[in-house]
Model the fold of this input.
Amino acid sequence: MTDDLKRQIVELEASLSQPMPEPVRRLVEQQLAQLRQQRDSLVNLSGAQTGDVTIGDTTGRDKVTSGELTLSGDARLNGVAVAVNLGTIIYGRDPSEDERRQLARYLARLAAKLRRLPLSGLAARLDDGDGVALERVYVMLATQESVDVAEGPLRTLTRFFRDDQVPDSRSGERVYAQLKDEHHHDYALPDTAVVVVAHTFASQSSESAITSMTLSRRQLVTEAVAQRECLVLLGDPGGGKSTFLRYLAWALAQRGLDQLDDRTQLLGWADDVRLLPVLLPLRRLAGQIIGEGASPAVVTSTLVREMEREYGARDAADLLDRALVRGSALLLLDGLDEVPVEATPTSASRLSTLHAVRAFVDLYPAAKLVITCRTRVLSDELRSCLGWDVALIAPFTLGQIRHFVDAWFATLRTRGSLDQAQSDHYAQALTDSIVGSERLRRMAETPLLLTMMALVLVERGELPRDRPLLYEEVLRQLLGEWDVQKGGQSLAEVLGAPNLRGDDLRPILDQLSFVAHAGAASEDGRGRLLARDLRLTLTEYLEKVWVPGAWEAAGRCLVYFSERSGLLLPEDDGGSYAFAHLTLQEHGAGRHLLLQPTAVRAVLERRADDRWREPISLGLGVVQRLYPMLADRIDRIFAELIDPDEGGRPKDRVRWYRDLIMAAELGKERDWNLLRALISVDRLQRELRRGLVALLGDNAQPLPTAERVRAGFLLGELGDPRVPVTVDDWRREVRRALNGDTSGYFCRVAAGTYWIGSADDEPDAKDTEKPRHAVTFDAPFYIARYPVTNTQWAAWVAQGGRPASYADDSDLNRPNQPVVGLRWKWCNNFCAWLRAQANADIRLPTEAEWEAAARGGDTRRYPWGDDWRDEHAASEENQESHGWTLSVPIGGFPTGAAPCGALDIVGNVREWTSSVWQSYPEAKEIFIGKDMCVIRGGSYRDNRTDVRCGARGGYRLDLGGINVGFRVVLSYQLKQEPITDGR
Done:
């Protein structure tokens, strides 16, 4: 169907809603019927029109064009029959000629529609013509999981390091070499970028310890999909989830057409792997379920309709069924977060939708499936409903950012949008801006924001350094296009209002964004606006601004939207309109929400609906940056969220905890320091810290683990009051403990006899833990409630102490994560500094003291008892539920407390002790000079066997592991001299 024909139909449909003489109405209706018939005939004749692909009938006359591929009418490429290999896989035999043709045409249509990067809502001019090819600018994504790449003595790994900095394995003072650029995450892509983890294979004899280095990299998202039958792929808004599914479907379609090249290479997949890709927005499935029921049959029928309607497949039911049965289909279900939490008249609920999907997979156990979802949306209930593996998309590294920037501007040069000099200039300018600004660097970690930054830089020559301001600039560009006459009329000319500018429509566009987001009837979370309702709304606005013939002008405006806007696009053959991009809809909805007089109440009414989380954040940013005179609204919203009461009554505890998390996240996003000029930040942060401490210390643990971990990180960034940082803090906690107050930082372990080690018949007991024996302490001692954190260590570094080995790794240096990468001597030096400053005996615990504190007065396997509990410790056993693959903030597992009250004493990080590594029962305490000491407690990388109270290991004193930290004890029993040989 041509654009001209489509426009005529829209205009006539709109005109019928106006008063007109009956004879004229009949003529209009007759003409409209003829045009509709012409439209339907064109669609039936052509079979389908999808993107830049046109498919004819099966007579063999017409061609199929898919990007750079052109299939002949009999579905051959350069005379060669394609899709034979995939057809053989699907049918279990050589496909018939008709089966091959139908499969090839489906794959070609799919590839053609998905090949173009969707830019209509961001840069309409780049969407013209061939557009921007997705595969030319796509950058591989990685997950938060790690994959070991190489391991061995340092001398065998020199290929990863710069030649002039090769480490000497014989040196007593280890210096880790700098990685080559092709292996550094600031320059390389995730498949070659590595991180270094040093460790020791230890035995009972220090002489047989082998110093080695392990290099690991991030697991690629393509690998995560290849290795699982069913996968839930999580990511933040704009993090690349949907784009990845589009790219994967495109690449599989090309593979199915036997087009194997660098662009269709899927790392982690063998070249001969071919699957039938089926892409479906989950919102569309939810819409079918509400009308037809949550059964596997409805899932099947929806998939079939999608293949037929969107991609013109024929006999799709048979093709899909055969592929599902033989395990040769990959279902790509996009956007669980766009399905409403509760059912609506037009959509089933998330849980009902997932129940249907789960039942469908049970019916086809060989099926492969990927579901995408925003990270914060996947609740424990939804996780348990599926029971599938979860992968979390990692933010872009600087290496990924560099590759995208280079590919983006090279593509613009290829399509003629920029010349060579402009391309080089903008690529360098954008990279330099991102490298030189921490705020821009954080924004660029999100692929969508990075794309928008590239677009704005070309148009404006500089970059806003805040997300709402970036969106404002994108909207300003789009609206500015309406004011420019390029081969046609400007919007002002169309409306017959020469003084009206595109930006004057912002209030009405904000209102429409709000209405669209509230309805959100489309499959991808964008709301559809009925053309008649949209025209009425525009008419009311145009009448207010004195545009003559407002109704007719509104009709012309709709046609203009259809042809030129790039912001509001027609759907359903002009029967409705939708914002071109969900992000812009969310931004406009947030503006409207926060700029109305009832903003505070409106935000509180929507805060529990995660679909409104992004608009609320963006709306706060608009007020903060553009309307500071309304800052009292920001203050009141934060105060209401932090307050444990609402409407004079206590909030439900889960509701309050989630409000606290939301307030902390919003404050972080809006930058507390910048907010300080507008609202009472100190008061709000004080109350917020108090609330988050209560959340983390709640033994009922009403929130899922991932939410508690988020709360812990947020508390650390606010300043965690649970740990002493300054010298005065440490002195106060020492006095508190020695005065008998056991509620503070130090936990009291009473004098007495304790069992150490493991019994011969204890499950999983190792020889190095035997025999079980008793130790007696003549006086009490006090062990720290938590491992030492990065913030505490940083206070010593500021006084001349030694930075940790991983001080530059942002994933390991959040404020209240346990500090890691510490050699044994550094920990002792930290204790010596504290002893001098706090005038108290603070030191590393002996391993007997550590185990006595962990077990209490009995022989329990774990600090909480004999049975393993996932929710009691951060370990390999429950890492997936954390939503985090490294160490987690201290004190997030209150039910895992030791009898004395110490937290994280098992799991999270291994802990140095002062005891030499040797067999029981001859262990003795040492402080300097030996090769290996005992580490205790296990870590986030260890399973339930290695996080037992009795589990022990040895570690070289001159190594600092990525998962090794420490905690301190306070005692009068053991006097030490300060260590002075180095820092």
